[in-house]
Write a structure and sequence with these properties.
Number of helices: 2
Strand content: under 5%
Structural class: mainly alpha
Shape: flat
Order of helices and strands: HH
Largest sheet: none
């Protein structure tokens, strides 16, 4: 399975913190789109 950009960043620096830096109004749509694109095992 291809690693996500976040997974690659974590491998680069496991102490790095990430956060949601966008409007909370689009978070639900964004997470649903991400979930729909994730391959099933």
């Amino acid at each position: 399975m291809k690693e996500s950009p976040v997974e690659r960043l974590i491998k680069t620096n496991s102490d790095m913190e990430t956060g949601w830096d966008s409007s909370p109004l689009i978070f639900d749509q964004w997470i649903q789109k991400l979930a729909n694109a994730w391959p099933l095992p």
